[in-house]
Design a protein that fits this description.
rod-shaped; alpha+beta; Alpha-Beta Plaits; four-stranded antiparallel beta sheet; 4 helices
Length: about 190
């Protein structure tokens, strides 16, 4: 009998441990399942946000590239005629090359190419004087300036320098001349 009682007690003890375990463990298992589901949702949300951030970084990079191209374009073909800036640039090139600039005349080209053309053009006529190398430096610098331009006419005459020399070697041949070129600007914002 003692063995039977022991077996019954052991059975009741095991059953009560299992009942308590089921009553305690099942709610924790449900909570852990809920937590796993929430963790999965948060992980998916985090991945979606990371993808969105990466897309925004890509857009930011594209913006900087496009802004850089716009700045380059705006330097090459300004949004306005901007005659004062162009005049300053020409005088700076003249100072750099040692050429004397006697006059700068600007004339806007009306109806440049076609009516639907968004680019305006300005003819610029310069009267200059200097040595051959100074004028050559002036023309080369003018051609490499960032603004689009097209040199159309170069006309040079020579004269002998008497008192003033443009080099340190005494009297030299001084060239005076006319340079005509066309430069462009974006007039699309004026037409709208």
């Amino acid at each position: 009998m003692k063995n039977k009682l022991k077996l019954i007690l052991i059975g009741v003890l095991i059953a009560s441990i299992l009942a308590v375990a089921l009553l305690v463990v099942l709610p924790f298992m449900r909570r852990s399942t809920e937590y796993f589901i929430k963790i999965e949702e948060y992980t998916n949300e985090k991945n979606a946000m990371e993808n969105e951030i990466n897309d925004l970084y890509g857009l930011k990079s594209d913006y900087y590239v496009l802004n850089s191209l716009f700045d380059k374009y705006n330097t090459q073909i300004p949004l306005t005629e901007n005659i004062p800036v162009l005049t300053d640039q020409i005088y700076e090139i003249g100072k750099y090359s040692g050429v004397k600039i006697y006059s700068i005349i600007f004339n806007e080209v009306l109806n440049y190419n076609a009516a639907d053309n968004k680019a305006g053009a300005i003819n610029v006529d310069l009267s200059i004087e200097g040595s051959y190398y100074q004028i050559l430096t002036f023309i080369n610098t003018l051609e490499i300036m960032p603004r689009f331009l097209k040199i159309e006419i170069i006309s040079l005459d020579s004269k002998q320098a008497e008192q003033q020399s443009y080099t340190n070697e005494g009297a030299s041949v001084i060239l005076s001349g006319e340079i005509s070129f066309k430069t462009f600007y974006d007039k699309s914002n004026y037409d709208n």
